[in-house]
Design brief:
241 residues; alpha/beta; D-Maltodextrin-Binding Protein, domain 2; 2 domains; five-stranded mixed beta sheet; 10 helices; 12 strands; globular; signal; ModA; metal ion binding
Length: 241
């Protein structure tokens, strides 16, 4: 497969280049793995910047020279296309994320943990800018827990900071992206409960070619690579569907 990708790139006259990628915080670890595989296959390298999807949107709107956006939702890339800041017909869902209730230490959380609320602080990403934070709020609403849990919430600027709140002990639990703490179906650290997907809207994560990358053949090649079986295999290892 890798050899076929290389031959395809050479046949189209694509040479080693660099792609400026803006990525949602939940996808940093898999993107690092994907970047290494993509470079080995094509010679192209990625320059990675990460943050909450809403903040990346603001940076792009203000002229940040990113060439590809890997968002944590599907609405943000759509907005960028509508505002002519991204190339039409390049948007696609590269992954569907999973939410996990995670604890760095102590008892293993389960479906009763939120209902019993025997904790003082629960960390979630800021729902105003982070899709995983919005998904967490949907979980609370689905279980009728919004009012009861509201006083206990602490908000991370992005999903990575949310995990740090829990890892540092500033919150006993956090609703975070499974990719931050799981690999090959097992927890790398701490303990957790994989939240049933039916408790929130699907976390569809879309990619799009930004205006600044329209003339960068390496950016187009990277988006094509994300659709490959090799890329999908890596994403599945980090808990994405």
């Amino acid at each position: 497969m890798r050899r076929l990708i290389i031959l395809g790139l050479l046949a189209n006259g694509v040479y080693a280049g660099e792609v400026k990628v803006a990525v949602a915080s939940n996808f940093v670890a898999p993107l690092n793995a994907l970047a290494a595989d993509f470079k080995a296959a094509s010679g192209h390298s990625l320059q990675i910047s990460n943050g909450a999807t809403g903040k990346l949107f603001a940076q792009i709107s203000n002229g940040a020279p990113f060439e590809v956006l890997l968002a944590a939702d599907d609405e943000t890339p759509t907005q960028l296309v509508e505002q002519q800041l991204a190339a039409k017909d390049t948007q696609f869902t590269y992954a569907t994320g999973r939410l996990v209730l995670w604890s760095a230490a102590g008892n293993t959380p389960n479906e009763q943990t939120l209902k019993q609320s025997q904790f003082s602080k629960l960390a979630i990403a800021n729902p105003k800018v982070a899709p995983y934070g919005r998904a967490a709020m949907e979980v609370f609403a689905a279980q009728g827990l919004s009012a009861a849990l509201s006083p206990k919430l602490v908000y991370g600027e992005n999903i990575a900071q949310t995990q740090q709140f829990v890892a540092s002990g500033n919150a006993q639990y956090g609703l975070i992206a499974a990719s931050l703490v799981m690999f090959d179906g097992k927890f790398k650290s701490g303990k957790g409960w994989l939240v049933p997907a039916q408790l929130h809207q699907p976390i569809k994560q879309d990619a799009v070619l930004l205006k600044a990358g329209q003339n960068n053949a390496a950016a187009t090649a990277f988006l094509q690579y994300l659709k490959s079986p090799a890329a999908k295999k890596i994403m599945v290892q980090y808990g994405y569907q």
